């Protein structure tokens, strides 16, 4: 038995020395340590040995030796494989120029820039304004006192300190009048918020672009001229519009300016609530009380204001049927516009 054990030890060493790969090592492992391997055979042979204890210890010693040697060889093969992988990997090349996939602008950004360009060309300045405002800016300064029914239409999200997320870009009117005084031509695009349930044409977060022009002798004709010019430039065609009386506490008279729904061509669809028309740009002559609150001399100056629904405009311009797509974050629908 002892001689047989010694013989196996030598043959194992020889096999291991010849072994060149992990797969070969596995074969050796099965040949020696497997269920029907040499060690198992030796164990079976114990039956016929007189000193079973000594022989058993010798066999176990050999088994442990083989296990350790195989584990060590296995480790070496694995390390060599990793090193080979690292060696064959591509080297970093700082001068290599690769094609990069470019992002794209959000359709609201595109529409905003386009409208801004049109107004910049007509001598308006573009103002940036806060999203968090106070009650005075959003309502009081716009002739909407506390408990005025107009507030019902504009429920929003309130902060613990009493400030609120602005419900309309009109919230900037007062600060901008105080900042520049008259005469004044300014537009101010911005994100607005309302506590509203959503559907194909309503969102709780949307964009508007407010505009104000204050000067001597400003009248409704100026207002209509600027609105029509802007819309035909943006849509690159003569746009059908209709003007209806509309009530807003901060203008007098006030109007609703509607455009023919570009999605259904005026036949009626969910985007225009089946009316064929889309409220796009409420507007009017700035109420004297609002001008006074902004420090403007109402004896000398008048002005018009409008609140263009930028999100609606983007829907019409790009044929987006559901307003909720804009805030969906879905690259599939949002990245189909011009790349940067
Ligand atoms: N701020 C109004 C709203 O969001 C829209 C509006 C109406 C703005 C008339 C104006 C205006 O400047 O003149 O409902």
How would you describe this structure in keywords?
340 residues, alpha+beta, 2 domains, 17% strand, binds 3,4-dihydroxyphenylalanine
Précis, in short:
With 340 residues, this protein is of the alpha+beta class. Helix content is 40%, strand content 17%. The protein contains eleven helices and ten strands.
Can you describe this structure?
By secondary structure, this protein is an alpha+beta fold. It has two domains: 2-88; 107-337, BirA Bifunctional Protein, domain 2, CATH 3.30.930. The chain contains eleven helices and ten strands. The protein has helices at 2-18, 22-33, 38-45, 52-88, 107-121, 135-138, 173-180, 220-235, 288-293, 310-318, 331-334; strands at 125-126, 132-133, 164-165, 184-193, 205-215, 241-245, 251-260, 277-279, 283-286, 302-309. The strands form two sheets. Strands 1, 4, 5, 6, 7, 8, 9 and 10 form an eight-stranded mixed β-sheet that branches. The longest helix has 37 residues, at 52-88. The chain is rod-shaped. The site of 3,4-dihydroxyphenylalanine (DAH) has 12 residues, from strand 7, strand 9 and strand 10.
